[in-house]
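We give the chain.
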Amino acid sequence: MTLPALLFLSSLPLAVAAQGPKAAAAEVRRYGIEVAGIRVGTMTATRQAPVGADVTYSLVSDVKVNFLFYHLKIYYRVVNHFHNGQLLLSTVEAHTNQGDFASKAEWKGDHYDIVADQYKHHYRATETQPIRYAVTNMFFSEPPAGQARAFAEYFGDYFALSREKPGTWHAVRDGREDEYQYTNGELVTIVKKNPLKNFIIRLEK
């Protein structure tokens, strides 16, 4: 064996040791989306392993519906960055059969600049109160008792939260209502109520 090869092999344990312990894995929740019992898409929620005081959540939804005269295509991705439990930056990108849209909420040191430009929804606001709970949080544990609202990243404002019974929460905003169902603290079903047909989002094991 040549000297360069021996030097390379002898350095391997040091190289492995230098990498340190393996990083903690992200938490991932995968859901199927149904309309009238037919699977029409997927939703994936991810919570990255904390890095110090920083935690990042993401939510990706991909839906395609073709029922007679009802056609819907939506892909959207939410990314929320928290530091010490406070939301610092939320971004939403949406690609639909009606066009491309975006929302953003960013902490500027003493307030948030919020801009939401979505389909038939345009909203701008300044929020001075720190945001500590958002819709993405709801995918990883049941809301704590007394949690009255969740930041709705897509709209740039809030869902009002209420618990109907143990394990069942309602999120209401401007006539829109979603129902979140938990079993042993795990989000298993979301019912997005729609005048035509409800969207049912079920946890996939």
